[in-house]
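In response to reviewer comment 3 from the previous cycle, which asked for concrete evidence that the modeling workflow produces usable outputs, we include below a single protein chain processed end to end. The sequence was submitted unchanged, and the resulting structure tokens are shown without manual editing.
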Amino acid sequence: MEKFNTAFSGYKKEEVNKFVDDVIKQVESMINNMKAKDLQIKELEAKLEHYKNLENTFNRAILVAEEAGQQIRNSARSEASALIEDAKRNSDRIVNNALLKAEQVQRDAERLRRNIITFKRRLRDILENQLELVDDIDRLDIKE
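The workflow returned the following structure tokens.
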């Protein structure tokens, strides 16, 4: 606290005026500082509001991305299941076709075995007949 010297009719006027001027300067400085701080607070509040809006936007984007990801996973699972079912049906068809072809080949092979046996028997008969003819030639009395 400032102490003033006394003069003939109270405090010295110059000292009081100087003190009042100093107080005015300090008060003006404090007011200017407060105005600057108020302005800074308003700017920071505006930035904070902007960042809150960005945060909300990001949160919504994350939710949308998560939902899209879940839909993609569900779709992929469904497609995979459909592909597996289709593959099973195709494999069953392929196996059935292979079994039918194997049965057909087995029947053809059996028919060929029977044909070979028949062919051998007929060839044997023909050869035996030919041998009998050769034997008959020996029996014939050929006169020269």
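Residues 7-139 form one domain. We consider this sufficient to address the reviewer's concern, and the full set will be provided in the supplementary archive.
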